[in-house]
């Protein structure tokens, strides 16, 4: 099996999404033969041509006012240089987000990143964890899955974390970070299938 190269590009204002990005990185790095690069969005704009050599690019952004953060939007707008040339066509893509509430309209952020990836001809990977799979029966209680639960936000497009205004490192909670770790591992596994 050849080595695979995965880049994780994220924007985080308060550090919550950075912790998610680090969990995605660590999950991807746990896959044998993976080489993982973690870049904040501003640095990624400056180094955008380096990303041409990567097999997968995962996007991460905090959700503000029901949409992706301006820093991530700036990075995605910079990818127009890759659109016309098809440089990122058939690369694996994925995305994750964090907000201060369970919803916060995080779906809009993930959809925005997914649409950008589709514009670039990339292949999007969703979450592999079923909500609360590590807490059997949690779905049958009025409280639902707790903070240690996998995919407690019940996301399919990409991991969602909820921090509720709690400062890092106490948020995002363990279940949200484990979901991000699992996602990184899933991205690596699928990338390896497409790059034998």
TrEMBL record:
Stated name of the protein: Flavodoxin family protein
Classification from the root reads: Bacteria, Pseudomonadati, Lentisphaerota, Lentisphaeria, Victivallales
Q: Which organism is it from?
A: Victivallis lenta
Which InterPro entries does the record match to this protein? Flavodoxin/NO_synth, Flavodoxin_CS, Flavoprotein-like_sf, FMN_Rdtase-like_dom
**Entries under PANTHER family matching the protein:** FLAVODOXIN-RELATED PROTEIN WRBA-RELATED, FLAVOPROTEIN-LIKE PROTEIN YCP4-RELATED
State a single Gene Ontology molecular function.
Answer: NAD(P)H dehydrogenase (quinone) activity
What's one GO-annotated cellular component? Answer: membrane
Cofactor(s) the protein requires to work = FMN
Q: Which residues form the signal peptide?
A: none
Coiled-coil stretches, from where to where? none
Q: What are the Flavodoxin-like domain coordinates in residue numbering? A: 6-150
């Amino acid at each position: 099996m050849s080595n695979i190269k995965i880049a994780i590009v994220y924007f985080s204002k308060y550090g919550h999404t950075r912790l998610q990005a680090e969990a995605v990185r660590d999950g991807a790095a746990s896959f044998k033969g993976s080489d993982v690069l973690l870049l904040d969005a501003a640095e990624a704009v400056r180094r955008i041509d380096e990303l041409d050599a990567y097999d997968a690019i995962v996007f991460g952004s905090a959700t503000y006012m029901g949409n992706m953060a301006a820093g991530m939007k700036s990075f995605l707008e910079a990818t127009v240089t890759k659109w016309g040339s098809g440089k990122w066509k058939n690369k694996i893509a994925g995305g994750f987000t964090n907000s201060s509430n369970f919803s916060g309209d995080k779906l809009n952020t993930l959809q925005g990143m997914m649409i950008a990836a589709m514009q670039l001809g990339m292949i999007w990977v969703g979450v592999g964890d079923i909500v609360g799979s590590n807490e059997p029966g949690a779905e049958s209680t009025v409280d639902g899955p707790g903070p240690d639960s996998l995919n407690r936000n019940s996301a399919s497009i990409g991991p969602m974390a909820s921090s509720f205004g709690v400062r890092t490192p106490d948020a995002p909670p363990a279940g949200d970070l484990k979901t991000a770790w699992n996602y990184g591992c899933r991205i690596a596994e699928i990338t390896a299938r497409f790059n034998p």
